[in-house]
């Protein structure tokens, strides 16, 4: 009785064979992709790690990652080899292939490549077949309902991507999207933080200018502030810039008009 062939082994990691079982590597990969909230986050290096995790965990020969800015075309951002990089660039240049369809239709696309001319994507199929690829699986990277990119998975042996690998590819795409969202939120937080820090510095300068005008014009801080603000508005100046000039002595404000406070008393 012939022995049935065993399933092909998982592709080795770029760092060599891993001693961990596949389930542990899946967990480690998802944790790694989630760890983006760091000060020295490098998006290019992160996206190459996405391709490496695809290679390590899925039964594929090569992987590519494409992303698109809003209202802009897809761009190749990471590839597991020069071979697949050239095929992916050709696919983008020809504007045909699984990745383009997966991106525009926001759905996973499978495509089998044979030696015969494909009526669906003839140029892409010819180029991919020449590079030694057979089936291709493209799964969209979706962020809050918007498709922002595609994971492209190329096999060099016949047969489509197994269902379990398709689900895992979907999970890796989702993890990529969530991680990019985390980093975008962090960047926004950093911008807000920088704005708050600027506001605090600005407030200090304004307080210094208020103190200067209060002492120089022998008035109260509220009057000094209202005078400072009115001058800035009238001359269309930034309040912080005017306050800095007042403190530095490069701009002199006239004393505020005298107010007969007694006339307002009842």
Describe the protein in words.
This protein has eight helices and five strands; from the N terminus they run ααββααβαββααα. It is α+β, with helices and mostly antiparallel strands. It folds into two domains: about 20-190, 2-Layer Sandwich (Beta-Lactamase); about 195-255, Arc Repressor Mutant, subunit A (Orthogonal Bundle), CATH 1.10.10.10. A hairpin with a 2-residue loop joins strand 4 and strand 5. The termini are far apart. Helix 3 (about 80-95) runs antiparallel to helix 5 (about 120-130). It has a five-stranded antiparallel beta sheet with strand order 2-1-5-4-3, with helices on both faces. Mean pLDDT is about 80; it is low at about 1-15 and about 260-265.
In a nutshell, what does this entry contain?
With about 270 residues, the chain is of the alpha+beta class. Helix content is about 50%, strand content about 10%. Helix 1 (about 20-35) packs antiparallel against helix 2, helix 2 (about 45-55) packs antiparallel against helix 6 and helix 6 (about 165-215) packs across helix 7 (about 220-235).
